[in-house]
Write a structure and sequence with these properties.
Length: about 210
């Protein structure tokens, strides 16, 4: 559970971040995808989301947007929201405050969004305070672990079913590591969520 659903103590380390957005009248969940866009995975995700009429949020690496601008345009044209995931997917704990903010600002030139998610879900407190001045920091409530191709897709679905609750922000990935799970685990997760009366929404851009 320390991986699949961050404990309260971890959430308290970043009080300025958004971890969950419960609905008042109806259960809600938010599908998010990190690390793309890439041609090997992102189009598959977009087609699956279209099949179910679901909108999601993509936290994109600026360098991938630079390499694949048409995919970024496709994400926007299909009505999904999107956010900044740094330019080079750098770990905040391994770089200086200035280096981290500079990497975010470079990505911002390509990804015009007030949403930001730190790679690996961690950064220094000083970095978080600075980022909060310009962005809404979005963390997560459920990690599917789809980034591990050694895991069976059934476990990815199990994680969604076990840990999702009203307002959960759920993390999938559009990456080479996760592509083996997308065709099976993602549709199964969406079907389970819809069948259990979850309204699936994109995160608001502003």
């Amino acid at each position: 559970m320390l991986i699949e659903q961050p404990p309260l103590l971890y959430r308290l380390l970043f009080p300025e971040a958004i971890w969950r957005i419960p609905g008042r009248r109806k259960k809600r969940a938010y599908l998010t995808f990190d690390d793309g866009p890439i041609p090997e995975c992102t189009p598959l995700i977009l087609d699956i989301l279209d099949r179910y009429g679901v909108k999601a949020t993509f936290f994109m690496v600026g360098d991938n947007v630079r390499k694949h601008p048409a995919l970024f345009d496709e994400i926007k044209s299909r009505g999904h929201s999107y956010g900044n995931h740094t330019m080079h997917h750098i770990k905040g704990m391994k770089v200086t405050w200035r280096t981290y903010l500079r990497d975010i600002r470079v990505a911002e030139k390509l990804i015009d969004s007030h949403l930001f998610r730190p790679p690996h879900g961690i950064m220094r407190w000083k970095q978080a305070r600075s980022v909060k001045q310009s962005f809404n920091i979005v963390m997560y409530d459920v990690i599917t672990r789809d980034y591990d191709p050694a895991l069976p897709s059934s476990l990815i679905l199990k994680n969604v079913r076990r840990y999702t609750r009203n307002g959960s922000i759920i993390v999938f990935h559009d990456s080479l590591k996760s592509v083996s799970h997308i065709t099976e685990a993602l549709p199964a997760a969406i079907e389970w969520l819809l069948n259990n009366d979850y309204e699936l929404l994109p995160l608001p851009m502003h």
